[in-house]
């Protein structure tokens, strides 16, 4: 078996004993995910394995396990809950790629490109069904929470495809999308871990709020990195969202500007930037714009507000890991 110190974790964990428990838990979750995606239809199994094996941080199941350590520790229900949230996340990615007509996911061909949209949708549906099947083992309360989470996740996906309501601010609309698509499931991840490890209600509530805030902040920090980081640092081509006309925190903050000097930037941001020269100009203008600093401050404030919720969590390596992760989010926007 791979030594615990050689297994990467999605969260910063300094304490050796805690890290050992989390690594062992994640190895068990990986085995269960592999078993749960198997279908009698071989092509569905193959399609599900495609994305499961393509990598990913496994941040959501990791957070389930870490939150459980704030209580009585990792147990059978915690491991099941960790599998539930990752299967739900994987399912959403298949459907997301169909909606976005994406060519790549985690550096590999997306399922809709490798096969077709029908296979990608069926694979996503299969994973959702498996996550629901596992949730049923956790009891009625978990089923209710999963249903509410799924509703928010799908609503976020729907809102992403729709224009804001008349009079609704573009940025407020976008933050609702991020909260639904990303924050909701990460909040449930922390909630499940705390619930199924016997944490008191005030700790469950605090970790749920923490998950919502760090999950939202994590997505928003990606928005900033897309514009502000070089490819050799972030591993992504700078300005990808800009090129595709995808709204992000900094660009929406820039669009709020009424300064006449920003007229050219507002013009460039009004449509996808497929022309290289226009894209380069917009990227340079965005990097120099005060909206970048405003976006960084917003993410820092969100991360700090997540940390503030942890006052009810006992002092120790678990709380420190949660604080450190929020700190990583705040600094990764630089």
Describe this structure in words.
It comes from Nocardioides marmoribigeumensis. Its cofactor is Mg(2+). The chain has helices at residues 16-36, 42-52, 59-68, 76-100, 111-114, 117-136, 140-160, 170-195, 201-228, 231-234, 240-244, 249-255, 263-268, 276-287, 290-308, 317-331; strands spanning 104-105, 108-109. Mean pLDDT is 87; it is low at 102-107. The chain is mainly α and 334 residues long. α3 packs across α8 and α15 (290-308) packs antiparallel against α16. It has a domain at 200-334: Farnesyl Diphosphate Synthase (Orthogonal Bundle). The longest helix has 28 residues, at 201-228. The protein is globular, with a radius of gyration of 20 Å. It has a two-stranded antiparallel ribbon. The protein has 16 helices and two strands.
Secondary-structure element order, N to C:
HHHHEEHHHHHHHHHHHH
CATH topology of the domain at 200-334: Farnesyl Diphosphate Synthase
Major sheet strand order:
1-2
Which second-level CATH architecture of the domain at 200-334 applies? Orthogonal Bundle
Summed up, the helix count is: 16
The coarse silhouette is globular
Q: Quick one: CATH superfamily of the domain at 200-334? A: Farnesyl Diphosphate Synthase
DSSP strand content: under 5%
Enzyme class: transferase
EC number: 2.5.1.30
InterPro entries: Isoprenoid_synthase_dom_sf (IPR008949), Polyprenyl_synt (IPR000092), Polyprenyl_synt_CS (IPR033749)
Protein name: Heptaprenyl diphosphate synthase
